[in-house]
Known about the structure:
Helices cover 48% and strands 8% of the residues. By secondary structure, the protein is an alpha+beta fold. It has one domain: Glycosyltransferase (Alpha/alpha barrel), CATH 1.50.10.20. The protein starts with a helix and ends in a 16-residue tail after the last helix.
Amino acid sequence: MPNEEILSKVTKAIDAIINSSDKYEGLFPSLLDLDTHEMIMDMPPTIKGQRIGDRSHLGSNLILDETLLQTMYGLSEAIDRPDYSAVADRYLKRFATHCTDTVTGLFPWGEHAFWHLVEDKIGNSSRYHDPNSTNPAIHDQLRSAPVWLWEKLYEFNPKCVERFAEGLDWHWREREPLEYSRHGEIEVKERPEDYDFCSFDFPRHGGFYILDWAFAYIKTGREDFLRQIQKMMNHWWINRYDDGLLPYCSRTEEKVVAFHMVHACGQTMGYAASLPEAAEIIQDKQPELAAQMREQAGAYANAFVNAPHDLETGKFILGFRPDVPERTSVMPIWGSAYGIWPVASMALLCLSIYRHMGAIKPLQWAEAVGRFYLKEEIPEGIATPAQDAGLALDLLADLYDITGDREWLNGGTRLAYKLIVKYLDKDIPRAAAGVDWYESQMGPGFLLHGLARIALLSDGRDKCPLEADYTTR
Length: 473
């Protein structure tokens, strides 16, 4: 039988979150009080590495709840809880039919926008950063939207999926050479502001859009979505460095020190991971383009694993500038912050590449990362986000699922019990170690997903209906 103690903690948390959603037509509040399980009306302080303008206070954010909803669908089948599937459907139907009729078609989700549950309208996170701001709500997808989520949204409202794919065009700027912005207006049909110092067209976002367009293309047959995919792929293929890695942005001035001439390892892998997924979607209708996607994904993934990482000492490179060694940033094992991902996220993308393409080097890179999670404890005194904990569990679970080596399962189970003590000492998870609230922006959904997956895999690799999540790119 699956580890019942771990699953009991997960289901108790999900039940409490479900109860909190009854007042809001099934949408989950982003911030909850750990004791009352009610939505927090006065926003708690930010933790180190968190930006106030990224929060969804008084609202709900689907892109942040995706892993939790996936966990509910998986548990619905695994432990015979059809109510979980019904509740997840209620959430997604409400979102698809009530929250998506925007001016541009872009959704109120992601990094800077959400659905305001009190005012029942689009929420604008920039207002928390500057209450006097008159800027309209901004679309920044933040993470990859998985295919299963698009399938569900399409089931409940096909038009909203098509309009979203159309709306992504508003991320392109009107200039030559071609570029886009990761930010796009939701409520105004305007091109992104044209900065003279930086394009801000992060590659990983281009990967998000390719996957979004691929799904919309296969459902609608619209050739303009296909052209958008080709346009994005060409944009990044011609902007590669000689070592095959991508820049943070296609255009920067030297004063933009954090990005200028930096080889962006994490961005490269984030972009690469979307290509084989998109290829799988369009394979039957566009086999030549699908082959090109896989070929390019392989080139990007090879560039990533060949970057100057040190797998023995645990130096995992996020970005570097070859001629300026001090412009090197590394991914932490624990303790991520804005713009600095935990290395487990990249290792999971390596496993996604392996699953889709059978590439051995990315698998070996992920295994090297996994060994550090078997031995490195979460440091005390740091408000490590729940997302870090969940991604670590997901990595160990996926390594076991792929290899069958019980070292990963045993290590993951040991880690799960430690994380329960640190994050799930109450009914719902803490947003980060040591804080006294739940907040979807800090990734507690990943923690519940990782715990559930470890527990279900302990009953057999062929008996776990909860699949890996590779959306943190």
